[in-house]
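W.,

You were right to be curious about this one. When I first looked at the sequence I had no strong expectations either way, so I just let the prediction run and decided to look at it fresh. Below is the sequence, 191 residues in total, followed by the output.
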Amino acid sequence: SLVLRASDGVNVANATLLVTITNDNDNRPAFDMDRYDASVPENAEIGTDVVQVVATDADSGAVLTYSLDEPSTLFVINPSSGIITTLTPLDRETLPGGVQFVVVVSDEGENVDRATVIVSVIDANDNAPMFTDTALAVTVAENAPVGQVVAAVSATDEDSGINAALVYRLASVVSGSGLNATDAFAVDEET
């Protein structure tokens, strides 16, 4: 607000001039990072928070709106807060490399900024091991030496890391000869 004064040399008159400066929206919003790295547990509930993206705008009173650059069936972003949440439980076995997508922030004009979000899916022990062969038949000579390998089996687990580590054991023995097979056979726990 400005005060204007006019004078004729003897008398004085004042007037108030109110000046309002309007925002020209000449600044673009900017994310605080170019890349956001996040992780979410495999099979996390729908609506699990993954990461919050944050942007600022130097224009006075700028209202920022967040969005995904392309529609997603896995994630949604809150347009006001920038919080990204899951739309579905994620399966690490189908997303072993994680997920990468682009987020956009706009300031109600044509000014936008983009950032990359990379989400890693943390493995859960949700897959059972599977033998490559579920039934084997072998013949062993009755005078075979102790420690002779009579069969080799293999199993795999689609999980990763410690969740895929396997331990082999002799679970049950079926013998029609009356032989106590648990005393006659051993299994290497690791191989």
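Here's what jumped out at me. The chain has a mean pLDDT of 89. And, maybe more interesting for your project: The first strand starts at residue 2 and ends at 7.

Coffee later to discuss?

I.
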